[in-house]
């Protein structure tokens, strides 16, 4: 049983696609697309040199184009704080006297329990404070 070259290239593409799904390495997907392009060249009657050149050219071109775009996209997402990290550094209004023992503030439209960062600091109602940390369900302010 003699298998055509284009079938071998499709087997290589599937062989690269399986670890792509298991490892989430996008480079393997780009190599798989290169293998599909080489299969097309083989099906059209291109020689082995042409097949290998198309495989390498398509794979390298995809890596050269897609990886920088993905890196820029990934870098742009890291700047967005969420959850309690988004609350750190924000200002709040004291609702009930805040000391090291506790108190209440209004932070991001919600009422939070709070305590002062330093033992000797006391904040009276109506005063603006800065949130420096979130300790469980308590905002640490100064």
Question: SSE layout and pairings?
Answer:
Elements: H1 5-23, H2 26-43, H3 48-77, E1 91-99, E2 102-107, E3 110-116, E4 128-135, E5 138-141
Parallel strand pairs: 3-5
Antiparallel strand pairs: 1-2, 1-4, 2-3, 4-5
Helix pairs in contact: 1-2, 2-3
Written description of the protein model:
The structure is a single chain. This protein is α+β, with helices and mostly antiparallel strands. About 45% of the residues lie in helices and about 25% in strands. The chain contains 3 helices and 5 strands, in the order H-H-H-E-E-E-E-E. It has helices at about 5-25, 25-45, 50-75; strands at about 90-100, 100-105, 110-115, 130-135, 140. It has a 5-stranded mixed β-barrel with strand order 1-2-3-5-4. A hairpin with a 2-residue loop joins strand 2 and strand 3 (about 110-115). The longest helix is centred in the middle third of the chain and has 30 residues, at about 50-75.
Give the strand order of the largest sheet, numbering strands 1, 2, ... along the chain: 1-2-3-5-4
Q: Determine Rg (CA atoms, Å).
A: 29 Å
Mean pLDDT: 90
Q: Please, how many helices?
A: 3
Shape: rod-shaped
Residue share in helix? 40-55%
Alpha carbon gap, first and last residue: 79 Å
Q: Report the structural category.
A: alpha+beta
What fraction of the residues are assigned to beta strands by DSSP?
Answer: 15-25%
User: Using DSSP, what is the number of strands?
Assistant: 5
Q: Main β-sheet: number of strands, strand sense, barrel status?
A: 5 strands, mixed, barrel
The topology string of helices and strands comes to: HHHEEEEE
The low-confidence runs, each spanning 5 or more residues with pLDDT under 50, are none
């Amino acid at each position: 049983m003699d298998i055509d070259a284009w079938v071998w290239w499709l087997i290589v593409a599937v062989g690269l696609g399986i670890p792509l799904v298991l490892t989430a390495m996008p480079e393997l997907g780009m190599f798989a697309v290169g293998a599909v392009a080489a299969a097309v060249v083989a099906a059209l009657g291109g020689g082995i040199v042409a097949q290998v050149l198309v495989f390498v050219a398509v794979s390298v071109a995809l890596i050269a184009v897609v990886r920088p775009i993905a890196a820029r996209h990934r870098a742009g997402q890291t700047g967005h704080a969420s959850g309690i990290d988004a609350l750190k550094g924000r200002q709040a209004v004291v609702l009930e006297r805040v000391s090291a023992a506790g108190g209440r503030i209004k932070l991001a439209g919600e009422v939070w329990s709070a305590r002062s960062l330093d033992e000797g600091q006391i904040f009276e109602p109506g005063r603006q404070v800065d949130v420096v940390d979130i300790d469980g369900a308590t905002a640490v302010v100064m």
